[in-house]
Amino acid sequence: MAASACPGSLCPLCGRHRILAVAGDDNGEEVEQQQQRQRQQEEDDDRTSLLPDGVVHHVFSFLPTSDVFRSRALSARWRSLCDTVPTLAFSLPRRGGGGGSAAEAAEDPFCSFVDAVLVLRSSDHIAKFHLDLPHLPPKVESKLASWLWFATACRVKDLRLELPRSEKRYPVLRSIRDCPSLVELRLCGGRVGLESSSGVINWASLRVLSMACLRLTDDEMRAVLAGSPALESLELQRCGGAARIEVRSRRMRELVIDGWKHPSSHRGSPRLEVSAPHLETLRLRGDFPRMELRLAEAGSVTEAELDFSMRVDRDDRFDYYKWPRKLARGILQKLRNATKFIFGCWYLQVLSRLEEGDLPPLLPNCNSLILNTRCRSWERHCILNMIESSPQVERLVIKMVQPFWKSVEFDMDFEAFAYGTQKYLGPLKRKNKLECLDQHLRQVDVVRFDPRDHRSSSLLGLVEFILKEARVLDRMLINACKVDADGSNSSEAPDPRKLLEVSQSILRHQRASKNAQVVLYYG
Fold it and tell me: What single-letter DSSP state applies at residue 49?
């Protein structure tokens, strides 16, 4: 019977109740209160352990994987949490100045750590798997295929592989070409590495694909697009090799080509043709070689960003820059249905060669126009050319970019030719009434205006012209800021005296619209 049990033995009841029976009422209550206070103190000191597993995993996703796995020493629960964490990110330390044996000594613990983490995993699911390899030593290269295979076997959704940008040897797609669980994939460096016998790709769920510093043949580009039927966004950064990008999927929404490299081993003039009849957003950025760039189909594009530059030779000056003007016109003709445009300095320079009064409506449906410019004196006429070519524009954004001294796009001969033309030096005038200023333009935003910059007089001349001609203008916002020598925004506020001078100058301008408000602010 329980009553005959010896006083010091444990009965099926919990130990706390047994202590009360042995110690007596008064002392037992005191012991119980002390235990309760101790448990409460422990809970107050370690509230993190009370969090659900999903919340802890979310916190882990913001920490380096090395820090996450150090917490395995805390308790059995933390070991379980670490072994099932859905986000894994590994970064190989950059090589120091020592090199040689010192560099190899740093590679061994990195490989051992990655292997240990993968062996300890008790979950067959990985949400994110990121590898940042600023250099690719033989030991790491020999392990890389098995690490990528492990990620695909665990049905990874977000995979990122950063190889050295100069790396052209490693076949990045060979180990991950069959991964239907992928939703987002970002690759940098290496080569595609698809042989004709194993060139089939299965990325059935992939929606976002970004590839940088990769050389792709036309067959490899077709294999990538054919194996990604759910793809919505494709970004190519400083890639090259392929001569045609053909996107037939109706799900594709955005195509970004940020720079293009023409392999020196390829013969003939570089060319790239883009065909995407269902695309909604097209962005062409960065540096391109002198090449034939053509849009075959782009009738569904509603937003186009043309902020790229292309090398122009000295000989182009003697034929009035016919070749770049033809290229620029050809692209715009395929984007006639777009309603929003973003133009960079190169495009503005090319279109400045079009004569005023003889400009066709290159952007007949554009209602939002964003112009990145340095606003030199002759670039004001480029802006007016764009306004004249966009009769339906309702919102105009003029964004000051790059330091004034920085050389861009065209060579010095072009600038000398532009400054030698008298119309660029005189006041702003137009033979014909600009339709959008007369009927449609309602808002103008001037961004990154530095009152100290000697270009401010050119910009204020443009502001004066718009205020004088825009009959339905509602508001003009001028964002003043102080720009450092490298072109970045300064944390310091602009000189108040300069701001006062600018505001007084603007107030003296004649306004065609009685309702037009001009707001000058900084921040």
Answer: G
